Structure formats: C-alpha cells, structure tokens
Amino acid sequence: MEGQPPDDRRVELKRRRAAARRSLLLRRVVAVGVAAVGTIAVWFLLFQGGDEESAAERGHPSGVSDPVAHLVERLTPAERVDQLLLLGFDGTDAGASMVRELRTRQLGGVLVGPRNWVDASQGAALVGTLRAAGIEGERISPLLAVQQEGGPSRALPDLPPAERELDVGESGDPATAEAWAREGGAALRSAGFDLNLAPVADMGGIDSAVAGRAFAGDPQTAAQMTAGALRGCAQARIACAPSHFPGLGAASQNTDDGPATVSLDAASLANRDLTAFRAAIAERAPAMVLSLAFYAAYDPVTPGALAPSVVTDLLRGELRYTGVAITDDLGAGAIKATYTVPEATVAAIAAGADMVQISAPADQRGVADALLDAVRSGQIPEERLNEAVGRVLELKRSLGLLRL
C-alpha cells in the first residue's frame, strides 16, 4: 500500500479485513455442514445398517422381527414343528379329532375343503369353532385357510368368485382382476378365513396343465392380472398365496394325478413362467405355493417344493422372496409315487419351505414325529426350523392373529 494516500490505505485495509471475515465465515459454514453430514451418516449406520447388522448377529432370518424371533425361542421343539403344518380334516362339524388337535397343539394352520363345507351358514359356524378351539388358553391361533380360485375351482362353491381366472384374464384389465379378487377375498374374510391358496399365477393356454384355472398364456398379461388380484386381496385384508412356483403351465400333467415334468430350460422359465411370480413378489405377496413338478432346469429328479435349487437358490436367493413358502398338497400323486408323506415333509422343510400342506388325515400320520426326529438328528438344522417358524408367525402377526 506504499505510495497510497492515508485515506486510501485505510479503505484498502478495511476491504481486506472484511474479505478475511467473509472467508472465515465461509470456512465455518462448510465445517458445520461437513459435521452435519457426518452426524447424519453415523445416525444412518446406527439405526439402519446397525439394525441389519445386529439382526444378522442375532441370527434372525430376513423378514422376521425381534418380538417374533423371541417368541420362537420360547416355543418347545414340538410346538415349533406344529407351526409348520397346514392340515385338513374330515367332516362338516370341524371334526372332533381336529378340535382335540387344536386344543392340545400349536398347529400352524387348518385347511378347510369341499368335504367340510355345506353352505355359508354351516361354514361360518365351522370356522368359528376352529378359531375358538385354536385360541383356547391363550394359544397361538392357527391360520384358517382355503383354496378358493374361482369358477369351478372353488372349495366353497356358494362363495365368490364365480368367474374363472381365464374369464377374468380375457378382459386384459388388471382392475377387473383386482375387483374379482377383492370380492372373493371379502367373502372369505367375512366367513372367518385368513389365507387363500390362490390365485393361480401359472401360464395358461390350451396345452397347460392348469388350463382354465390360470389368467392367460401370455406372460405379461398373466403378470399384470396376478398383480391386480393381489392388490384386491390386500384391500380385502386376506392373505393370498399365488401358485404354483416356479410355474406349472408347461408340466406334462397335473401333479395331483402323478409325477409331472417341466422340461423348459432356465432361460425359458425366466422369460415365461417366472414373470407372474416376479410381479407377485413386487406386490409383496405374503405367501407362495410351491409346485410339486420336476424341473429339468433346476433338479430333474426332485419335486420342486423339495428341491433346494428351487426353494432356496431360486425363490430365496435369486428372487429375494421373504414371505411364507407353502408346499402344494403333499398327498398328491406326484409325491406318493416316490416318497412317503413324512419323507417328503422333512425334505421340503430342509429344502427351504416354511409350511407343508397335507389335506387328508390319513396322510398326516407320522409327519410331526418325522420332523422332530429330523431336527434332533440335524437333518433339519435348528436355524432352518426357527427361520420357517418365524416366517409363519410373522404372517400371523401381520393378520392380527399374534399380538406381541
């Protein structure tokens, strides 16, 4: 500033001091901002990533909350095994045997079928009896389940939906599927049910093993209609389980009748049959029914519901599904051709299934004992057992059947 007049020097000095103050203020603002970002990052790690880490450390499976996991730990091994069973019964008055079972065991679910249902009036009383027996003594309520697809494929013929999936699919309008499922779901909910083993998410078409029971033979249409139906289920407040993963549309026959093979390669299945199941998972389907067909692309000698490559690797690993995986009825011809029902039950749970469906009482003999023996021997690791039970109980909790 040499050579400048005194007044000019004072002006220049003030200017430099002001600039210095502005620079210091800016540095402080930046520092505060960095600190704030750091604090947010730490908060996120503690309350988001930290939760995941602590859950993993505790060994809780994906989709299972802490309260449910703690309840699982309090159940005896026999009670845990019972939670894996979705069992049917004979008779139209809830069957004295099933009432006794519910009063002494912690069954995962009870399946009501055509042989139990006379009409809506009798059926409502029957379902009420089952519910009352299941919760006696503050026990854990069973899931009350039915397979109510639509049209002639209804366990309860006097309840909706009267239209077949094929009829709904021909509209090409997901809103139609949504309304169709909402009507059917509301009727089931009013009758006291919690779970519907439907809709069919398989590929239809004239050559399909499920022709008439499926929405469409076009993957995109089937996916859109399946997604719409699941939205209708959610609006009706009933859990719906799409079937039959990973797709029964190309099977050589219906698995009820005997062994069936799906010969498609993995790429064809992914582009065709899995499309609707991906849509179902995107809609947060709370449960999924597993197919009993043989899949050449994954395991040509093991029924899908019993194959780790299908249940664990594909459904859980690749598609990241965390809901309840339920086998199709293990009393089917596809199973009995090569397995006993107890053998198939153990294989299914070991492979990654969470519930086994067995409709006929004659097929249920020895199943619980076989599961207990498999747990004791390590054939079914305790972590696998707890994972399956946790998912079943989490579904019950979401339906208001479990208050923790």
Kindly list the characteristics that best describe this protein.
about 400 residues, alpha/beta, TIM Barrel, 2 domains, six-stranded parallel β-sheet, three-stranded mixed β-sheet, 15 helices, about 50% helix, globular, disordered N terminus
Topology, pairings included?
Elements: H1 6-58, H2 66-74, H3 77-82, E1 85-87, H4 96-104, E2 109-111, H5 120-135, E3 143-146, E4 148-150, E5 153-154, H6 165-169, H7 174-190, E6 195-196, H8 219-236, E7 239-240, E8 261-262, H9 266-271, H10 274-282, E9 287-290, E10 294-295, E11 299-303, H11 308-318, E12 324-327, H12 333-336, H13 341-351, E13 356-358, H14 367-377, H15 382-398
Parallel strand pairs: 1-2, 1-13, 2-3, 3-6, 6-7, 8-10, 9-12
Antiparallel strand pairs: 4-5, 10-11
Helix pairs in contact: 2-15, 4-5, 7-8, 8-10, 13-14
Describe the model:
The chain is α/β, with parallel strands linked by helices. The protein has two domains: 55 residues; 335 residues, Glycoside hydrolase, family 3, N-terminal domain (TIM Barrel, Alpha-Beta Barrel), CATH 3.20.20.300. Helix content is 50%, strand content 10%. It contains 15 helices and 13 strands. The strands form four sheets. It has a six-stranded parallel beta sheet. Strands 8-10-11 form a three-stranded mixed beta sheet, with no helix packed on it. The chain has a two-stranded antiparallel sheet with strand order 4-5. Helix 4 runs parallel beside helix 5 and helix 8 packs parallel to helix 10. The longest helix has 53 residues. The chain is globular and about 50 Å long.
